Amino acid sequence: MIVFYNPEGKILLQDRRGIAKRGEHWGYFGGGIEAGESPKQALVREVEEELGYRLEDFEYLGRLKNTLPDGYTIDRYVFTSHLGEKTERFALKEGRGMKLFSLDEAEKLIMVPGDELIIAKLKGFLKNG
């Protein structure tokens, strides 16, 4: 999965209502790793599928694993990328829309349990980055 961010430290999230797998309203872009793919290859493929954009510049933030209340485990490789002028070239192909949120705003959204761990990691990254 990838977190796109702007100079003000806002992150771009996908409106997942209608396509949510875990009841979330908002989420990050990206998805599962297919057989034979590396996490980076999966990321590039998923961004192209969801945004019609060929991602080339991104940074690895870390790997986060968490188990949901229903016992399902989510194992995510988290990448970041500065938005720059990318949004002008994004063609949303999945979800209802996308919107920029501050990290404080994102903490209050209905997201997949465990996404708060990513926001906590982002706070350190964006503060130091």
Overall mean pLDDT: 92
- Looking at the structure, the CATH topology is Nucleoside Triphosphate Pyrophosphohydrolase
Can you say what the CATH homologous superfamily is? Nucleoside Triphosphate Pyrophosphohydrolase
Q: Please state the second-level CATH architecture.
A: Alpha-Beta Complex
Number of domains: 1
Total DSSP helices: 3
Major sheet characteristics:
6 strands, mixed
Give the N-terminus to C-terminus distance in angstroms.
19 Å
- Series of secondary-structure elements, N-terminal to C-terminal: EEEHEEEHH
What's the count of strands?
6
Structural class: alpha+beta
Descriptive notes:
There is one protein chain. A hairpin with a 5-residue loop joins strand 1 and strand 2 (11-15). This protein has helices at 39-51, 103-107, 115-128; strands at residues 2-5, 11-15, 26-27, 59-67, 73-82, 97-101. The chain is of the alpha+beta class and 129 residues long. The radius of gyration is 14 Å and the shape is globular. The mean pLDDT is 92. The protein has one domain (2-128): Nucleoside Triphosphate Pyrophosphohydrolase (Alpha-Beta Complex). The protein has three helices and six strands; from the N terminus they run E-E-E-H-E-E-E-H-H. Strands 1, 2, 3, 4, 5 and 6 form a six-stranded mixed sheet that branches. The longest helix is centred in the last third of the chain and has 14 residues, at 115-128.
